[in-house]
Amino acid sequence: MFVGQPAEEIGTGSRLMLEDGLYKKFPTPNYALAMHVSHEMKVGTVGYTSGWALANVDSVDITVHGKGGHGAYPHQTVDPIVTASQIVLAPQTIVSRRLDPRDTAVVTVGSIHGGTKHNVIPDSVTLQLTVRSYTDEVRKSLLDSIRQIATDICKAANCPKPPDVRVIENEFTPATYNEPQLVSQCVDLFGELLGAENVIARKPSMGGEDFSRYSRDAKGVKGFIYWIGVVDEARFAAAQEPGAEPLPSIHSAKFRPDPEPTIRTGVRTMCSAALSLLQKN
Fold first, then answer.
1. Per-residue pLDDT averaged across 23-52, rounded?
2. Reduced to 3 states, what is the DSSP secondary structure of residue 67?
């Protein structure tokens, strides 16, 4: 199957397609293959990671309820901004002190909103977090700890009611696991096509992709996502010079792939991998 999937950037496309019966309307595949551009690699190269490659991605909203009032009389209020500020800092100890140091995790507060004026203490403050992990066990520990820490900080601050802690389940993207045997087979093939020096091992990323669901949500489907270099050779070489500016990342207004060789590499590698697996089966 060739899947033209929508809504990849918001992490819902594959889930909705699977819920709509992708593997019922069409046969369940033995393998799932995908590729993604990389702003860190030059054209003509591909990158791969064996095992855990991309992370679980959770979005969490926390609303801290206080008691608003005048900034000149803070003793007559329960200040949700001060309380929320403690919640920004405290979850960092989950990764550094609650998890096994060998487990990988990230807790980032990407947004904090509250208040309207210099001298007004508001009634509430809202935080938005992104939470990253690889395993289901670490994911659960992170989310449970965030909920417990937020609740206890609000209780200690004498907030009038517990915080609202909401994990946005329909935005969850599960971690991507690249099946090692499939990776090895494809890497050998890519080396024959492009030259072994152009097939580069990459460290796991804490980014996320909903491609993971095609292998996670069906037993027996082996998955592999790999990366294609997009930077022309001159710009790539210039970026390696001492003191040079880093290459602009994907999602940057300055991101500028070199289209023709990038597409050629993608077509050659994907078609060759698919044909090799079809012949095998």
1. 94
2. strand
